[in-house]
Amino acid sequence: RYIYYLAPVVVLFLVFEIYCLLVWGSLNPAINEFTSHNVPFERSPTMGLIGITFDQEYGLFANFPYLLFIIPGALLALNKRFAQFNLFSILLFAPYVLVITSFRDWSGGMCPPGRYILILSPLLSFYVAYALQRANSWLLNALCTIALLFAFAVDMAYLGAGGNGFSQGIG
Prior knowledge:
Blueprint: H1 3-24, H2 31-34, H3 45-54, H4 60-63, H5 70-76, H6 83-100, H7 121-135, H8 138-160
């Protein structure tokens, strides 16, 4: 019954593998990082986790403050009703975050803020929405809207800067 949900993932994976084979000559999905000697598990993920969360240039909370609503949303969702969703979230997040934060350059190279962790943002949006729904406060909704507009402005500033959204990581 759920096999139809996997079809887009499989198709995108196959297209990506064909791209890697044609452009890089390998089926290794991380060959472009490997050729620049930036491979996973080179460093402890602790500093990468702190960096991807709080760094002034790449950090999620510095650039996307609305994501702070994830914390109360996740705490509120710690009940039996959301147990399966929380389990799947952890199973998706844990290995992914462990790998991307263990690179020598935790941001994965010159990149817009949090590029790699934002792949998981659709999943995180549930916790943001749940926190706002449970709070039922126009003030918190307004605060989240302001934070979203700030994130949008930051994103537009990165795209309008000289590197077309790619920074040099100099702070």
